């Protein structure tokens, strides 16, 4: 099994600015945009045969019965969905934990990228 963990980049900051500016309309618009993008990513994963077991807030997680995946192609499709509005980071691993660790690594090393758990040591 291959697990993927996907999370929007800097979403908390975007939401915080709406709260601090007291802009309910901006907060609603952000929520609608985030919901739309994560649903599209969930639909993409489902269309590729993934079992999507989490899709909420700005995150999506799923698993595919496979030994490997084309992470570059997957990330390219996610970039297209995010467009200019939202970037996403992606972690890939052979367990849910590994995919999450890879996601954290992707976010801590520049965001808007995909990271495979088995490549973390060679990337350091």
Structure description:
By secondary structure, this protein is α+β, with helices and mostly antiparallel strands. It contains 5 helices and 5 strands, in the order βααββαβαβα. It has a 5-stranded mixed sheet. α1 (11-20) runs antiparallel to α2 (24-47). It is globular, with a radius of gyration of 15 Å.
Mean pLDDT: 96
> How would the global form be characterised?
globular
What's the total helix number? 5
Helix/strand-derived category reads alpha+beta
What percentage of the residues does DSSP assign to strands (E)?
A: 15-25%
- Radius of gyration, CA atoms, in whole angstroms: 15 Å
* H and E string: EHHEEHEHEH
The helical percent reads: 40-55%
Uncertain segments: none
DSSP E strands, number: 5
- Which strands sit side by side, in order, in the main sheet? 2-3-1-4-5
Biggest sheet features: 5 strands, mixed
| Termini gap | 25 Å
Q: Nutshell version of this structure?
A:
With about 120 residues, this protein is an alpha+beta fold. It contains five helices and five strands, in the order βααββαβαβα.
Layout of helices and strands:
Layout: E1 2-8, H1 11-20, H2 24-47, E2 51-56, E3 59-64, H3 71-82, E4 88-93, H4 96-108, E5 114-116, H5 120-123
Parallel strand pairs: 4-5
Antiparallel strand pairs: 1-3, 1-4, 2-3
